[in-house]
Amino acid sequence: MRRFKLLFFGIGLFLGSQFVSLSNVIAQEISKPQADLVKPYNPEADAQKDIDGLLATAKKEKKNIIIQAGGNWCVWCLRFNDYIHHTASVDKLLKSHFLYYHLNYSKENKNEAVFQKYAPEGNKLGYPFFIVLDKNGKTLHVQESGSLEKGKGYDEEKVLNFFKTWVAK
To answer: Using CA atoms, how far apart are residues 47 and 77, in angstroms rounded to an integer?
Structure first.
């Protein structure tokens, strides 16, 4: 009986250390300083021209477009960008089924006309938020990001389910 207790204790220690190790990796990713995260938003971009180019590609490839609205000033926007590129399942889904664009909102460029066109109620949401366009530029959905969060990061299952819902048929 004592051997079994020791065996279970040993297994528990091993599994606990693996969980702590994985938790530490996740915590390091989440706690990356904002300065160390990629800045995907371009305040100087002509957003409508960029989206028009994506729409031409979307028609050819029969894909929908995901627009991530936010700015380089927004740590959650940068975290989400980091998350989608470092989570293999999400990265694969996005690359195979969508065109993705980072729509800048900042004091340098608020892109008011673009926001008004595709997400007139978007100003009521926090950042980042997502605009799903079909290949013709019709807004299919506007989604806040808070429901996709888990702790100080994002929940893989929720993020995948959100994107899978909007794969072009």
So the answer is: 17
Give the residue extent of every domain in the chain: 2-31, 35-165
Q: pTM, whole model, 2 decimals?
A: 0.81
Cα gap 37→75, rounded to integer Å: 9
Task: State which amino acid sits at residue 143.
Answer: Q
Q: d(Cα 145, Cα 143) in Å, to the nearest integer?
A: 6
> At the topology level of CATH, where does 35-165 sit?
Glutaredoxin (3.40.30)
Q: How far is it, in rounded angstroms, from Cα 64 to Cα 55?
A: 9
Cα 9 to Cα 29: distance, rounded to the nearest angstrom: 30
SS3 157: helix
- Along the 169 residues of the chain, how does pLDDT read in single tens digits? 555 455 555 555 555 555 544 444 444 445 578 899 999 999 999 999 999 999 999 999 999 999 999 999 999 999 999 999 999 999 999 999 999 999 999 999 999 999 999 999 998 999 999 999 999 999 999 999 999 999 889 999 999 999 999 999 8
